[in-house]
Specification:
About 20% of the residues lie in helices and about 40% in strands. By secondary structure, the chain is α+β, with helices and mostly antiparallel strands. Strands 1, 2, 3, 4, 5 and 6 form a six-stranded antiparallel sheet that branches. The longest helix has 19 residues. The protein is elongated and about 45 Å long. The protein starts with a strand and ends in a 7-residue tail after the last helix.
């Protein structure tokens, strides 16, 4: 499992004082980019697109709280993979939001999906969720 930590900034809160829902998608994106870097999936050119994304908001989050975003691979396909992300409040350990996304390896010249290489699949498998 890959972990990335973020501390909520004041500008990410709304008039009600909690994190605006749009920012959870930003946290997920930041974590995905660090995940890609940690696995060495992206070299000179960016070669992935986001095909689908979802987030369930479970608890309110406030200014100065620290979140740990945990990312793991749920499924690996021919040209895509499913990523699950949990956002956990660091101090309490409570899950505050859960997200999922489908990420596609993409050939921008041909404007269509491209197969994941065996090396990419191997790297993704190292962070794949092991079902009980």
């Amino acid at each position: 499992m890959h972990e990335y930590e973020v501390t909520v900034r004041f500008c990410e809160t709304d008039l009600l004082g909690h994190v605006n829902n749009n920012n959870f998608f930003v946290y997920m994106e930041d974590s995905r980019i660090h995940f890609f870097d940690a696995l060495g999936l992206v070299m000179e050119d960016w070669n992935f697109i986001l095909a689908s994304i979802k987030c369930d908001f479970l608890k309110q989050v406030y200014f100065k709280q620290t979140l740990i975003i945990r990312s793991l691979v749920k499924k690996i396909g021919n040209s895509s993979f499913h990523l699950e992300q949990q956002m956990v409040e660091k101090e309490s350990g409570e899950i505050v939001a859960k997200g999922s996304s489908v990420i596609v390896h993409f050939d921008f010249e041909k404007e269509k999906s491209a197969p994941l290489s065996e090396d990419m699949k191997r790297k993704l498998e190292s962070h794949q969720f092991a079902a009980n």
